[in-house]
């Protein structure tokens, strides 16, 4: 069942999202060659807790960290580690969940570490753009699959692989709620979107094949061909006229 959130609930999610965005900004500012993903995790958790929130991921199904930090061919769920040191030319996807007064915000961004190759830069640009192409259909009256279809149609013109095993999702009092939101599919299918629904839309796009596998740690997802992957995500609320991004900074935060 897809839940409809009240104005009060969306305001709480907006605060969770604002804190989420602050943590992302702090991590982004710290990304440079030589820093470890373990250090980035500490930075994010410090920001989250200092604003009265808790890391949604920490303790989720036994996960031990505040962020997922996925470098190059790691698609999602990269585990922070002191030995994972960023180097120039890497790309790193940072996924952060925050919980404020029982409500979650979830978002991801992929960053360049110093100067990166043109093909990696193009992958980042296309993946981020695909998120917003999908969100054009995040409005009351559209079908859920209209979002999925728009992402796929935009991405496939570049020949990139669209990860199919993992999807976006509803979000609210639980980190993962109904519905699942694939990044591919036919339009005009599934749930009809209504004002007050809250969704985490998150294209995961690979430079090469769409095929992925999970490593022995049970978390880390990598591309089969070891080519890089990018991941962008926002939590949004469906409004009367479209959508509102909840995982963003407020004007006085900038």
- Along the chain, the helix and strand elements come as HHEEEEEHHEEEEEEEEEE
Described by the principal axes of the CA atoms, the overall outline is: globular
CATH class: Alpha Beta
User: What integer is the average pLDDT?
Assistant: 97
Q: TL;DR?
A:
By secondary structure, the chain is of the alpha+beta class. The protein is built from four helices and 15 strands.
Describe this structure in words.
With 254 residues, the chain is α+β, with helices and mostly antiparallel strands. It has one domain: Creatine Amidinohydrolase. Helix content is 27%, strand content 25%. It has helices at residues 7-30, 37-50, 118-135, 144-156, and strands at 54-55, 67-71, 74-76, 91-100, 103-112, 161-162, 168-170, 177-181, 198-201, 204-206, 212-214, 221-223, 229-231, 234-238, 243-245. It has a five-stranded antiparallel sheet. Strand 11 and strand 12 (221-223) form a beta hairpin. Helix 1 (7-30) runs antiparallel to helix 2 and helix 3 packs antiparallel against helix 4. The longest helix is centred in the first third of the chain and has 24 residues, at 7-30. The chain starts with 6 loop residues before the first helix and ends in a 9-residue tail after the last strand. 49% of the residues are buried. The model has no long low-confidence stretch (mean pLDDT 97).
């Amino acid at each position: 069942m897809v839940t409809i959130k009240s104005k009060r609930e969306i305001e709480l999610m907006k605060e969770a999202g604002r804190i989420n965005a602050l943590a992302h900004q702090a991590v982004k500012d710290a990304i440079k060659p030589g820093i470890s993903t373990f250090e980035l995790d500490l930075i994010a958790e410090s920001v989250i807790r200092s604003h009265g929130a808790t890391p949604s991921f920490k303790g989720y199904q036994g996960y031990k960290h505040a962020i997922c930090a996925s470098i190059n061919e790691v698609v999602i769920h990269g585990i922070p580690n002191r030995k994972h040191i960023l180097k120039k030319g890497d790309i790193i996807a940072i996924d952060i969940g925050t919980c404020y007064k029982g409500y979650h915000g979830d978002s991801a961004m992929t960053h360049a570490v110093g100067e990166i190759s043109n093909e990696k830069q193009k992958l980042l640009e296309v993946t981020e753009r695909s998120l917003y192409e999908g969100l054009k259909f995040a409005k009351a009256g559209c079908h859920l699959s209209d979002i999925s279809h728009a992402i796929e149609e935009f991405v496939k013109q570049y020949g990139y692989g669209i990860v199919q095993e993992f999807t976006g999702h509803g979000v609210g009092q639980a980190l993962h709620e109904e519905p699942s939101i694939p990044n591919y599919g036919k339009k005009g299918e599934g749930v009809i979107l209504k004002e007050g629904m809250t969704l985490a839309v998150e294209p995961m796009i690979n430079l090469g094949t769409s095929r992925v596998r999970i490593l022995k740690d049970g978390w880390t997802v990598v591309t089969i061909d070891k080519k890089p992957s990018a991941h962008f995500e926002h939590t949004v609320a469906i409004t009367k006229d479209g959508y509102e991004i909840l995982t963003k900074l407020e004007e006085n935060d900038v």
